[in-house]
Amino acid sequence: MKIKLLPALLLAASSGAFAQQQVANRPTVVAGFPVNYNEDSVGTYTLPELLKTTDGKPVATARQWNEKRRPELLRLVEENQFGKMPPRPKDLAFHIFDEGTPAFNGKAIRKQVTVYFTKDTSDHKMNLLIYLPAKASKPTPLLMNISFAAYNQMIEDSGLRVGEIWNKEGKKVKADKPTPFGKLNVEQFIDAGFGFATVYYGDIEPDFKDGLPYGIRKTYLKPGQSEPAANEWGAIAAWGWGLSRAMDYFETDKQIDSKRIALQGASRLGKTVLWAGIHDQRFKMVIASISGEGGAALARRNYGETIRHISDPSRYLYQFAPNYHAWADKVNAMPIDAHMLVALMAPRPLLLQTGSTDYWSDPKGEFLSAIAAAPVYRLFGKTAPSDSTVMPAAGDTSLLMNQLGYYMHEGGHTVLPEDWKMFVRYMQKYL
Ligand code: GCU
């Protein structure tokens, strides 16, 4: 099987040089479809109304939002974009094979848990790594990350189980090689009193075209069904579903404060955490990094990637519900847009992290989405930008500390070491 993998993120290990290059090499045609990078050519568009129900009634209070508008929007997003997901499986089981080993010179304790999704334990299992501050006297809040790498590739700790990852030929292989990402500094979370947890997304569902036979979605096909129905889950919803299963585990662990879990992921995994957080309200906070098109960036704004590019069969069709692709050529008729995704997180804290030269993901489209969603946060008395807020420059932290937060680093399609520091600050305030 031939797959095109390497998310742009893999290539974006460091910002500076990459950013320069990205400007020069901006593709103008992708999958045969033009890409617009010219503000003057964006055109005009009207976003579907947030604060009016489908039967035309105004939504003026938090209660009307919660009881009427939120459920109907959630369904629209589910039907038209990510697809329906099954509930918690009845055979879900946890095997804690590392029960609290000291790590990072005794600063933390480490747990490793295998989450079995099906009764057959030979396949469909997710390794969950958790660090908690060793000196915690109460259940600990934590950041739950979903990653492109197996956790032993991501963190410097010799006690980690070596995971398996999908290779370019679509086979699972031992994750015993380093990645170009470099290692994540987990101690910064521990030092701030937070735990840190992570999973490899490929343990849930592979990330390539024709990956259906290998992931969790296959196990839910009904007899006679060869692929998910038009309104059923794509790979992004499957990854998000896996995060809810991690939450199922957290709820059983007395050392973890499951009411204070923040989700974080980047790029297609930024889209994933946004959907997981919207759908599963047990998550207290979402930090969506460079989520772009199909994430927090407005679809109607013709800049950078569009649904048309996503929907090309050679690209990311499998990541969304089949229904989504029907909008590729008529985005203005789509009943939803990204401001609705952002608003569906309200009143829970949401931080959008973007990059100033990540044109493909349209950082301005994410900013405008936040502006459009802000009235919903305000219904709940939460802090959010206003219509007159000017888009912050790269590195400007003035919108970081809102419940609906926005932060753009200087650089491209990546999460920089300084971004993680921002996340810690944000968690200190709102988690
Ligand atoms: C591609 C894709 C984006 C996605 C990104 C990533 O660039 O077009 O939609 O966010 O990959 O996951 O790195």
Task: List the main descriptive attributes of the protein structure presented here.
single chain, 431 residues, alpha/beta, Rossmann fold, 9-stranded mixed beta sheet, two-stranded antiparallel sheet, 11 helices, globular, binds alpha-D-glucopyranuronic acid, hydrolase, GCE-like_dom
How does this structure look, described?
GO terms for molecular function: carboxylic ester hydrolase activity. This is 4-O-methyl-glucuronoyl methylesterase-like domain-containing protein. It holds the Pfam family GCE_fung. Keywords: Hydrolase, Serine esterase, Signal. Residues 231-381 form the 4-O-methyl-glucuronoyl methylesterase-like domain. The structure is a single chain. This protein is α/β, with parallel strands linked by helices and 431 residues long. It has a single domain, classed as Rossmann fold, CATH 3.40.50.1820. 26% of the residues lie in helices and 19% in strands. The protein has 11 helices and 13 strands. It has helices at residues 8-11, 16-24, 62-82, 151-154, 187-191, 235-250, 268-279, 307-311, 338-344, 363-379, 417-430, and strands at residues 29-30, 33-34, 93-103, 108-116, 125-133, 140-147, 164-166, 172-174, 195-200, 256-266, 285-289, 350-355, 404-409. A 9-stranded mixed β-sheet has the order 3-4-5-9-6-10-11-12-13, with helices on both faces. It has a two-stranded antiparallel sheet with strand order 1-2. The chain has a two-stranded antiparallel ribbon with strand order 7-8. Strand 12, helix 10 (363-379) and strand 13 form a beta-alpha-beta unit. The termini are far apart. Mean pLDDT is 94; it is low at 1-22. Alpha-D-glucopyranuronic acid binds next to helix 1. Residues 7-9, 267-268, 292-294, 305, 316, 360 line the site of alpha-D-glucopyranuronic acid (GCU).
